[in-house]
């Protein structure tokens, strides 16, 4: 019997290529048909291997979830950027390769990101998700998030609503 290990750890520069792949696959899966195609492609292309390597080196907190040695997903975390919300921590992104979605890895990565923010003394957590990304809304609600605020992101003159989920622990 083979045993696959699951490891959640801080990303290292050597992970940049794998994270760029996850980013591309996950964003195409999550946002095709929501964000206009040209804008989505441009956003993905801007964040290639060099961009991720620099983000990791610049002290951005990037976590990866590995399964059997393969980077299956990532999360980026830090201080809350929305001054109107009192939560101190924020998960900026949490994405998995499509083939690893729906098996509990996202919840494990979410819990690890939340714990890492708490370890840094950041109380409370906020996550933003586009309202049309029904999988993300269900994921964050299913992990105990409360939908408390809305905002707007504009892509090619197309305004898309976003929703803030919060946790106060």
Distance between the termini: 40 Å
Any idea of the CATH topology of one domain?
A: Aminopeptidase
Helix content: 25-40%
**Radius of gyration, taken over Cα atoms and rounded to an integer in Å:** 16 Å
Question: Mean pLDDT, as a whole number?
Answer: 94
Annotated CATH architecture of one domain: 3-Layer(aba) Sandwich
Q: DSSP strand (E) fraction?
A: 25-35%
- Poorly predicted segments: none
* Outline type: globular
Q: In the CATH hierarchy, what is the class of one domain? A: Alpha Beta
Question: What is the element string, with H for helices and E for strands?
Answer: EHHHEEEHEHEE
Output the CATH homologous superfamily of one domain: Gcn5-related N-acetyltransferase (GNAT)
Q: Report the major sheet.
A: 7 strands, mixed
Number of E-state strands: 7
What oligomeric state do these chains adopt? Answer: single chain
Q: How are the strands ordered across the major sheet?
A: 1-2-3-4-5-7-6
Structure keywords:
169 residues; alpha+beta; Aminopeptidase; 7-stranded mixed beta sheet; 7 strands; globular
């Amino acid at each position: 019997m083979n045993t696959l290990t699951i490891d959640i750890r801080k990303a290292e520069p050597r992970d940049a290529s794998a994270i760029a792949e996850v980013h591309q696959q996950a964003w195409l899966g999550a946002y095709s048909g929501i964000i206009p195609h040209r804008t989505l492609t441009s956003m993905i292309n801007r964040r290639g291997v060099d961009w991720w390597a620099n983000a990791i080196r610049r002290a951005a907190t990037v976590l990866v979830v590995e399964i059997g040695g393969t980077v299956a997903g990532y999360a980026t975390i830090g201080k809350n950027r929305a001054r109107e919300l009192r939560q101190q921590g924020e998960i900026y992104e949490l994405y998995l390769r499509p083939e690893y979605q729906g098996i509990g890895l996202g919840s494990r990565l979410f819990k690890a990101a939340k714990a890492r923010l708490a370890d840094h003394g950041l109380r409370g957590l906020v996550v933003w998700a586009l309202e049309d990304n029904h999988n993300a809304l269900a994921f964050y609600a299913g992990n105990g998030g409360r939908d408390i605020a809305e905002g707007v992101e504009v892509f090619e003159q197309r305004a898309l609503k976003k929703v803030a989920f919060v946790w106060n622990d």
